[in-house]
């Protein structure tokens, strides 16, 4: 009989998340990945304070220790800070390479998933800007970034305007497309795996006539979706919609899910020179990063954007910036 000691986890009790830290249970089902994340099934009947039946405890793969006769026999290896930084750097390098492949047309579409404010959009835009700079002077812009809500007919027109080979459309936090059946069908046609991708608009439209957009055209461009959604965690009808796009796109999860990973990403980017333009002394940069790290549980958002907000305050109010930051970027 295998026992497991939960290092850090949680379980649902009447719709509420209850923490489970440093409790030992009898293992019923080994760790596996479910819709809501990783979990193990345990028998909680002999542990005071827990339900008298099997329960599912949500935890990471390194969130528990298996024990036999009271002895630990297995534990997932925890990543060091250096390993996390290297993993994140490799993911963002992959994002750069994949963006180049999308621009070259060898990759038709890509979905980039990660939390807000970690540099998803910046990495993609930087690559596309470099391509644009080396393009023929005075030539038409070969990519566009779409943000916010977009109607189906607006999407159809945008795809037409960027339908040529080497054209790239970037949908940055434009998640309304995922929820709209018509928009989704348009995108499915645009990203089809067939060699010839023809998109149709089968109803009469003044907007199309007015803008000279035909009621059908061949789409030869590429698309990048940048989103905060983790597709494997979404359920219900939206999950079906996302699956339809996921099957047509390469999917990159930047694997930044914890505050620790976000903070290490911040330290990495600041170390790479993100604040160089402010001409701060090294001590000021360290103070800004330390302020964000020390207050990460109270910040409105743990992100690179928050670091830049603090840097703006440090530039404007060198002696009082922390006081201002406590009142503007913290809850």
Please explain how this structure is put together.
- By secondary structure, this protein is α/β, with parallel strands linked by helices.
- It has three domains: 3-75, no CATH class; 82-253, Rossmann fold; 259-328, no CATH class.
- The protein is 38% helix and 24% strand.
- It is built from eleven helices and 15 strands.
- The strands form four sheets. It has a six-stranded antiparallel sheet, with no helix packed on it. A five-stranded parallel sheet has the order 10-11-14-9-15, covered by helices on one side. Strands 2-3 form a two-stranded antiparallel ribbon.
- Helix 3 (152-161) runs parallel beside helix 5, helix 8 (259-271) runs antiparallel to helix 9 (282-294) and helix 9 (282-294) packs across helix 10.
- The model is unreliable at 70-76 (pLDDT under 50).
